[in-house]
Every structure is written in C-alpha cells, then in structure tokens.
Amino acid sequence: MNDDLDLLYTDVEESLRDAVRTLMARRWGPERGIARYDGDTSDPGLWSALSGELGLAGLLVPEEFGGAGASAREAAVVLEELGRAMAPVPYLTSAVVAARVLVKVADKELAGEVAGGQVAALAVPLSAAPDGSAALAPVTVGGDGCLSGEVRGVAGALDAEVLIVPVTAATGTQLWAVERAAVRITPVVSLDMTRQLADVDLAGATGRLLADGDMAVRAVDEALELGAALLASEQVGLAQWCLDTTLDYVKTRRQFGRVVGGFQALKHRLADLYVQVETAHAVARYAAVTAAADDPDRAVAASVAQAYCADVAVLAAEECVQMHGGIAMTWEHPAHLYLKRAKADQLVFGTPGNHLVRLSPLIDLPARGTAGQQTAD
Amino acid sequence: MADQELDELTAHVSDFLAAHDPRALGRREFLRARFDAGLAWVHFPVGLGGLGLARESQTHVDALLAEAGAPDNEPERNTIGLGMAAPTILQFGTDEQKHRFLRPLFTGEEVWCQLFSEPGAGSDLAGLTTRAVREGDTWVVNGQKVWTSGAQTSQWAILVARTNPEVTKHAGLTYFLCDMSAPGIDVRPLRQITGEAEFNEVFLTDVRIPDAHRLGAEGQGWQVANATLMNERVTIAALPRPREGGMIGVVADTWRRRPELRTPELHSRLLKLWVEAEAARIAATRLRQKLAAGQPGHEGSAMKLGFAGLAQRLSGLELELLGADGLRYADWTMRVPDRSDFTGHDAGYRYLRAKGFSIEGGTSEVLRNIVAERVLGLPAEPRVDKDIPWKDLPR
Ligand SMILES: Cc1cc2nc3c(=O)[nH]c(=O)nc-3n(C[C@H](O)[C@H](O)[C@H](O)COP(=O)(O)OP(=O)(O)OC[C@H]3O[C@@H](n4cnc5c(N)ncnc54)[C@H](O)[C@@H]3O)c2cc1C
To answer: TM spans, by residue (chain A) (predicted)?
Structure first.
C-alpha cells in the first residue's frame, strides 16, 4: 500500500481527456451505439482517429518498441472517456491487454505495429480472470504444427488483424501469433453490442511462436491483471455518465408539482450513489497509478478495483434506469447502452467474486483454517 | 511538499528535539514547548502553534516526534477541542482569544466539549431555545443542552445560544466559549446504550459569559457553528490511516488468530467489507490530496456517511464471527470514561457504540440531504419555518 502515489490528474492527463472527449462529441453519439444493436457495423473512424490522429494506441508501448512510452495513468484517462461515451473501439483489448502481452514477451515488431494502430486481440474469453487459468487453453498444437480448438467469446476479435493465442502444447503453455486470415471468426450476438464478442475457430491455423512456458503464462496473467485494473476506469467513466445524466433528468422532470429530484427518496439514493462513484474514482485511480509505477501493491489494487468498481457501475446504471422511469425502458433512450455495458463489464476479466477469491491469499485472509487446526466449515 | 521544505522541517524538528529532550521534560512542559516551536499543527500560523505549512506535513512531524519517543497530547481525550473548537477559534477568534485558548487546548490542559444539541433541537440545530441575554459586558445564559459528550471532564465548551428571538431561527444565534466551571452549570451524566455514560445533559441557569468570550459577531452563530460541523466531518473523513487501520483491522486480526471461527459465508462478507474499507481509505487519501492541491473537497460529509455504515456492518460481522463469545459482554456497570476509546473495548461494545456513528455529528439522513443539496445541486427540503421569526414558530 502506497499513500504517496498521486491520485489526481496531471495537466497532460487533463488535455488528453479533452482530446478524447472532443473526438467523441464530433464522431460518436448514443444513437450510433443503439444502431449497433440493429446490425449497423459502419465505422465512424473512431479507431483511426484515436490511434492515428491522437496516437493513443501506443501509450503502453515503450518508445524503443515504437510506442509512446506513456503509462497506465494516461491509458486510464482514455478509458474513462471511452466508458463515458460508450465507444465501440478495441482500446482495452488491443492497446491495453494485447499490447501488454507483446511488450512482456518483448516482440518488438508486433508491439510496434499495435502501437501504430494495428488491432490485436488476446484469444481468451472476455470473462477470463487473471488467475493463472490461461495455462488451461482450449487450443492445442498437432505434430504437423497446425492448431486446433476454438476460443469462445473473445472481445476485439472482430476488428483484429492478428490474434495472440494461448496454446496447450506437450511442453506446456505457449503463446502464438496467428494472422486473422488463418482463422474463422464468427460474430456473437452479445449482451453488450458496443463490445461485441466473437467465437474464434483455430482449426488448421498456423502461426508464429511468441513465448512458451512460464513466460507465456505470466504474460497473459499480467495483461489480464492490467486489463482488470484499467477496466475500472472505464467503469468509472460509465458510472459518472449515469450519475450526471440522472441528475440532469431529476432536476427537470416534474411530478406532483415539483421536480422529482426534490423527493427525499431519490435525493438520498443519489447522495449514496455519489459517495460510491467518488470512491470508485479513487479506487480506479489507485489501480492505474500502482500499475503505472509497477508498485508491489498493484495486484491487490487491481482486484480491489474490480471488486469495487464493477458493482458501482452496475448500481449507477440501474439507478439511472429506475430514476428515469418509463423513458429509460425505450430503445431510443441511451440508458440501456450503459446498463448493458455495465452488467457485461461486471463479468469481464473476472467477476467481483473472482477478485475477492484472488485477494484472499494476497491480503492474508484465508478461507479455511490451516492444517492441524479445527475448522468450522 | 517540495523536498527542500521537507528537509527544512526535518531539521527544525531535530533542532527542537535537541533543545527539548522528550524523556527529560514532563508531558505538559514538552507539549507547551512543542506548541511554541510551531510543531503543534504546522498548518496553523506562526505564533499559534504552527508554521503556515500544508496540513499534510503534520504527519511527517508526528512521525519524527513519535520516533524520538515524544509524548503525544492524548488526542482521544480531547477530540472535540482538537477537531472542532481549535479550527473554529482560529477562523473566527480575536487575537486575544486565539492566544488565550489554543495553547492549553493543544497541550490537553484544557479539554473541550460541545454544547450544541438540545432536547428540542438535534438535526434542526438552528431551532434551539437556550437563551443568552446581554447585560452590559456579560451574557446571561439559561437553557438545557443534551448529549454533551465529555461534559464531566471538560474545562471549556463551545456553545450556541439564541440571542435574538425576534428574527428567523438561523439569524438569531450567537456562538460562545463557555467556562464549564462557571456557577450555574449543572452536568448530569446520561447512561447510554453501552452501559457507560459518555454523554450528559447540561443545565444552564443564569450562567454568566463575558462578552470577550463571544466567538464571531452577535447573530453570526449559525455560520460559526457550520464551520465547526464541517471541520468535524472533514476531520473524521480525511484522517490518514494505514491499510486495515480501523475497525476492519480488528476483525481481520480475529480472523487470522482464530481459524476455528471461519466459515465460507463469513469469509465472503469479510472480503467484501475489506474491499469497502480499503476503498474508503483510498478515497480519503484522494480527498486529502485534493484539499492539499486547493481543489474543493465536498466529500467531507460524504465520506463520514460511508465510514459510519462501514463501521456498523463490520462491528455487526465481528459479533457473528465470534459466535458463542459474541454473546458475552465485558461490563455493563455505569462508568464515566475520560476518553473515547473504540477499539480498546470488546466486540459487543463496538457493535453498540458504532450505532452512534450515524447519529452524532449529523445523522446519516441529514448528511444525505447535505450532499444532495450542496454537492449535487438538488432542490432543498421544504422549509416551512424558514421565513418566520423564531418566537412565532410552533413548538
Ligand atoms: C454518541 C453521541 C454523542 C453525541 N455528542 C454530542 C455532543 O458532544 N454535543 C452535542 O451538541 N451533540 C451531541 N450529540 C447529538 C447529535 O448531534 C444529535 O443526536 C443529532 O444531531 C440528531 O439529533 P436528535 O438526536 O435530536 O435526532 P432528531 O433530529 O430528532 O432525528 C430523529 C430522526 O429523524 C431524522 N431526520 C431529522 N431531520 C431529517 C430530515 N430533514 N430529513 C430526513 N430525516 C431527518 C434523523 O436522521 C433521525 O433518524 C451526540 C449524539 C450521540 C449519539
């Protein structure tokens, strides 16, 4: 635990936020998000602007690999804004998770390409937690060097030009880079269509070995941990949008001759929500700054962030729907975009429950008695 | 804080310790010297116990002094003095008042209590009825206060009284510093839920307070009282704590020491509460950083809201965790404690005492109103009594 880390935003981070927010205001809006649920996959140029004009795809890639050499602090600010805008870009999956794997295994070339905006995806289910289970990959390699197996529910795969695939080989876990052309990618109708999943069938595919053994397992776990840590910032952006939008609404909607925001039943719930959203801001920031500083507390911070922020985002979205009344149940109102994302995010990179289990040994609060001692369960 | 500033402060503390051996001097004498050296509360002005530095630097000073084995001022004996009276006196006091009161307050020679609440005025503090009537250079006070923590052991009190019943309730109040040994003050202990008597009722009959002990202008009592309450909440909220520093540490410790008590259901609740406690702690750190950077920290009230609920749920969990032992209670005898000591008691006491956390210093409902109105900008509660002279209000 480190109290000296700066949990506020620097000027540079604030201008980064402005740039992303301006871009979103120009090229994106909730109606486009809603259209995604009706099959509209047209590209408003968000990714090319984010990675090209703003150069944000390479924030987490060191300069000597061709990246911007920034840190998780800046990437977290980008994610806050993407969560607020509900933008369907593969930032978390490519620029955070895949980029981290590639940097970890020191694949300079591919890391450099991802930093430049080429989209990569780690072929694990989006629900995978950083708990070492990457070693149990469903994909295997045959004697002919061809892969077989399918990974279901992968996020960012639809946009990906290259997949980073954990493979179970005779010698242990391996990581492969596989070109998109070599695999079959089937879109999945997803709870959250602004981060649509796909099933990836690797039968017959070949590729290039990136890493194996311990290094492969650690690279995946660290990347998922970073994903979990920074997902919290997306959740905070989302929760803040829900709180702000709900406040605007209850201040203008009138019933019984008063604005409904004057009713104490709503005021008190909004006050409680505010406390939790503020706390989530602090917790998400702590996860980002410990990741940025590679602080020894980063594993705890990431799991605290997911165990806390995931539920706050869901609560914010649920209160947003409830306090808008019937209008929030309509297809045209954006509240449902946020509810679907918030609920899906709760399952991403491990549920709050998975993260509590992960925390248990890290904070020395074991589930059971140690050997020789009487246990109650 | 800049490194150079920190080095200078470290040097100042070393010089001070070289000249004042904490092991040779008595507690009182050492604390007086510490105040005079500006090391009492470094964010106060020079000459008033401080050095005009950032509030955070105090942690550094405290650590250095503790390392040298210096005695502290037993803050748990004077929480109201240190957390509420001192900052209010600094903000609203005259020079004479600041010089008269701050030093003995810091050293613990004068302990303070808070004469705000009355039987008819709790959440609606501005409705209070205790009257102060001016007679030349003194005020004559009559009325009754209640829930006054530590009144038995205090030398001074912060007091709000009605000085003008002809105007609206908020406009007719004045704030005083009241000598608890003055004739006419009658303190009667009130036994509370835990068995002990931490708080009291205080009857004031023709108590004479010199006008020199009025804090702020006549009629300004509401603003001054609000400053006190804000300070109280920020004090509670922004307190630096280590991980597992509060109630969570007590429960986690029991969990680690007594594996035979563990069950899967308690385990998942404990982990959830651990995360909440840690989240609240990180949020308090961020609040301190915001205040230090001069950004508005509205979260004082909000944070107190969070802490109260958390401590209550944790203290409830602690009893369940203890199982059969949770059914025992240390001591119901009526006692008058001279300090607030939460973690020094047993689990049953903690469970009961924590119930007060959502009542004292503004109930959680009132704090939710404050957050909703002042932070979120939602409409104020209907106030039927706002524009009516106090004397005409139904009571
Ligand atoms: C342990 C303890 C120590 C204390 N120490 C001191 C002390 O040292 N000095 C001092 O002056 N006071 C002290 N107090 C008093 C404390 O400040 C008051 O108890 C508190 O302000 C509430 O007032 P009340 O008890 O009159 O409750 P009431 O104000 O009567 O409240 C009753 C209920 O109504 C609710 N309520 C009231 N108004 C509203 C509203 N507008 N909206 C929604 N709900 C509302 C309250 O939340 C509460 O649930 C102490 C109290 C406790 C429990």
So the answer is: none
Nearest Cβ partner of A365 from B260, B274, B372? B274
Distance CA A18, CA A25 (A): 10
Whether pTM > 0.90 for this model: the answer is yes
Asked whether residue A370 carries a pLDDT value surpassing 70, the answer given is no
CA distance A248 to A266: 13
Q: What is the pLDDT of residues A226-267, one digit of tens each?
A: 999 999 999 999 999 999 999 999 999 999 999 999 999 999
Whether the per-residue pLDDT at A371 is higher than 60: the answer is: no
Using one digit for the tens of pLDDT, what is the confidence trace for A281-312?
Answer: 999 999 999 999 999 999 999 999 999 999 99
Ligand 1 site residues (CB inside 6 A) read: B 113-114, 116-117, 122-123, 147-149, 199, 356, 359-360, 363, 365-366, 369, 381
Q: What's the fold here for domain A217-362?
A: Butyryl-CoA Dehydrogenase, subunit A; domain 3 (1.20.140)
The boundaries of the domain holding residue B296 are 225-375
Q: Which of B147, B175, B204, B373 to mutate to test the pocket of ligand 1 (most atoms within 8 A of CB)?
A: B147
> What total of structural domains would you count in chain B?
2
Q: Is residue B238 part of a domain?
A: yes
In a domain, B219, yes or no: no
Q: What is the pLDDT of residues A204-222, one digit of tens each?
A: 999 999 999 999 999 999 9
Q: pLDDT at position B300, please?
A: 75
Residue B322 lies in a domain: yes
Among A3, A247, A281, A308, most B C-beta atoms within 10 A, so best to mutate, is A3
Nearest by CB to residue A367, choosing from B267, B280, B371, is B267
Residue A25 burial (C-beta neighbours within 10 Å; 0-12, 13-18, 19+) = exposed
Strands B112-115 and B156-162 come out as parallel
Q: Is A254 helix (H, G, I), strand (E, B) or coil?
A: strand
CB atoms within 10 A of CB B4: 8
Query: What's B276's domain CATH number?
Result: 1.20.140.10
